[in-house]
# Entry
Amino acid sequence: MHMQIDRLTPENFQFYGDVIDAQNAATHYLINKGTTTRFHDLAKVDIVSDDVNPANVGISIFRGDARVFPLRISMLERHPLGSQAFMPLNQKPYLIVVAPSLDEHRPDIHKMKVFWAKASQGVNYACGTWHHPLIALGDAADFLVIDRIGSGHNCDEYEFDEAFVYQIDETDFARFSS
Amino acid sequence: MHMQIDRLTPENFQFYGDVIDAQNAATHYLINKGTTTRFHDLAKVDIVSDDVNPANVGISIFRGDARVFPLRISMLERHPLGSQAFMPLNQKPYLIVVAPSLDEHRPDIHKMKVFWAKASQGVNYACGTWHHPLIALGDAADFLVIDRIGSGHNCDEYEFDEAFVYQIDETDFARFSS
# Structure
């Protein structure tokens, strides 16, 4: 199995969620008497909340360990009750692995994709999108996370029968890093 | 009029909102098979939404110009329908200016306070807190902003009769920068 790596763009990620990037803002305007530019409404925050399982939008920080390559990818997860946004706080790039659904319960792991996110790009997984946990490149890294905090079952994990070993190609690494 | 500057802490800011800082997290735990630490629920996202003025939590990026000191502080603003969180994305410190309310319509500008926020600290203004727009130190800086996006009147501005000129003390600047 081969996973192609692509730069993260709003176009190639649209099936999975949003790219949080000032550069791709559909709307931006000056505020604060011209001293600040607002790049407006970059991600759809989508939280299921009802009387049985009340929830709020929460703000947390995730500190991801540096990952060692080749990387063993042995599971994906999804959040059925809410979107989950990650914004890097250490000006470092990171990797994103996602897959479409095969059926109601499983990701289609033969269609997994890997994306290289620039240091200035955040990502917002749409509700129910299968994705791999944080993959920080190089050092441990902090991310601001905006996700659902509340009761109810909001995390499905899918363990692979066999781990997939992913090695980022050196040429790709050099190309994306530059 | 003199404004004392203090380091931003959850204690000295509690009247105005939350400090978003992994270091001050009341709750943190390992997730993702031990590869990630979650510093959990660091700010209260508080958005007024009803049938007349429906609203969502939005994610935007604010790019603040570098401010020139001495700084002319001539207004404060507040958002009566929602909290507003700022997280620095460029690993640079910044300043926060807030004031309590004098009455229903005005801030008590004689009680303005200034806080030095470290590069690793975000801030979440509680609904209705009078605050100054972004004050980036040094270079222009990007912040991730989590605030209310929807209809209805959600910004009051209060213009001072006379601008207050604020110069950060060199000793303070050196002390906080180090």
User: Anything to note?
Assistant: The domain at 5-177 of chain B is CATH 2.60.120.480 (Jelly Rolls). The helical segments of chain B are 10-13, 170-177. Chain B touches chain A at residues 20-22, 25, 31-33, 35-43, 45, 47, 56-65, 67, 85, 87-91, 120, 122, 124, 133-134, 142, 144-146, 149 (CB under 8 Å).
